[in-house]
Design a protein that fits this description.
- With about 110 residues, the protein is an all-alpha fold.
- It has a single domain, classed as Chorismate Mutase Domain, subunit A.
- Helix content is about 70%, strand content about 0%.
- Helix 1 packs parallel to helix 3 and helix 2 packs antiparallel against helix 3.
- The chain starts with 18 loop residues before the first helix and ends with a helix.
C-alpha cells in the first residue's frame, strides 16, 4: 500500500485560528491530493493496457458503482455528498478521457 507523506499538520479545523492557518492546511492537503490523483491516473494507463478494446474504456455501470461507493464512504467520513458526487463525476469523466488517450496511444504503436 502506498503511504502518502505531507508537511507537518499544524492544525485541525477546530484549532485553526487564522486564515494563514487554514490556508497552510488546505495547501498541505492539496499536495497530498496531487500524489493520490497521480497514482489514480497511473491505473488509467494500466486499464488502457489491459482492456481488450476501445469500447471497454467507457463503462457506465462501473461509473455508477464508483459514485455509489464514494457516496457510501461520505456517510462515515463526513464529506458532503453535494461536494463529493460532482467532484467524482468530473474526476471520472477526465480519467476516462485520459484513458481513451492512453488506449489510443498504445494501440497506434501497433
Amino acid at each position: 500500500m502506498t503511504h502518502y507523506t505531507s508537511d507537518e499538520r499544524r492544525h485541525t479545523s477546530e484549532t485553526a485560528q487564522t486564515m494563514q492557518d487554514v490556508r497552510y492546511e488546505i495547501d498541505r492537503i492539496d499536495r497530498v491530493l496531487v500524489h493520490i490523483l497521480a497514482e489514480r491516473q497511473s491505473f488509467m494507463d494500466a486499464a488502457a493496457r489491459i482492456k481488450p478494446d476501445r469500447a471497454a474504456v467507457y463503462d457506465s455501470d462501473r461509473i455508477e458503482d464508483v459514485v455509489s461507493k464514494v457516496l457510501k464512504t461520505c456517510e462515515t467520513e463526513g464529506l458532503s455528498p453535494d461536494i463529493a458526487e460532482p467532484v467524482w463525476r468530473l474526476l471520472i469523466e477526465k480519467c476516462i478521457a485520459y484513458e481513451f488517450g492512453s488506449y489510443d496511444a498504445r494501440n497506434s504503436e501497433n
